[in-house]
Write a structure and sequence with these properties.
By secondary structure, this protein is mainly beta. Strand 5 and strand 6 form a beta hairpin. The protein has a 7-stranded antiparallel beta sheet with strand order 9-16-10-13-14-15-17, with no helix packed on it. The protein has 2 domains: 198 residues, OB fold (Dihydrolipoamide Acetyltransferase, E2P) (Beta Barrel); 56 residues, Irregular (Ribosomal protein L2, domain 3). Helices cover 4% and strands 24% of the residues.
Amino acid sequence: MIKKYKPTNSGRRKMSVTDYSVLTKKKPEKKLTRVLKSNAGRDRTGQISVRHQGGGEKRKYRLITSLNSKPGMSAKIETLEYDPNRSAFISLVMFEDGVKAYILAWEGLKVGQEVTSGDNEMQKGNRSTLSKIPNGVGIFDIELHPGQGGKLVRSAGNSATIVAKEGKWVQVKLPSGEIRKINKDCFASIGQVSNVTHSSQRIGKAGRKRHMGIRPTVRGKAMHPAAHPHGGGEGVNPIGLKYPKTPWGKHALGVRTRKKNKYSSIMIVRRRKK
């Protein structure tokens, strides 16, 4: 759900945020958090390898696991919490043996309900192998290799569907439109990732971006010639090139960057939409 503010000033006028009133009011589980050091987009040599990063609020990393870490054991949902490191919400669960863990929350999660992993009913939040999930059912937090842990479809509001099964492979249609073959013994959670309105919120002001650790982005056309291939010229002028380029002279905007001979290309049945 999206929460809007009264237009008391220009920053508030178009600002909207996710309504966090549904979340459990508690501090994160101390044993399941780790210190997260800020690198400000710099690599181990100290040079900027990812631009436009730096500053932002300090935050701790939450250790996220999956229900299939304890197969066949049911877990009770204790909380629904905010995670500053991802767009989706997370949930604290307690397994039958008393062990607590964080998992990705799904849309429609209710505190107090029980979920399991293994050969079980098709209930939202339950985790099962792809071979046991019927075609057309929404899934998320999908493994790429058995026992590896969830790798695909983990951001807010996303879900994938199974479109076909053949031998030991299951064809899964991802949110991008790509259809990919995945081993039938890989686990996936049933449902849709929580916080579906995340993409609808409007930032409203630059300061809020700075709190997220995102620094300003400058157009290449506004730079001088030595700083960017688009730079230079007097006033408003075109880039003067056959195609847009990155600051390092590589093709940009609409150019496919996936390697032609990548080892996993054989698993892709249909490429994603442009």
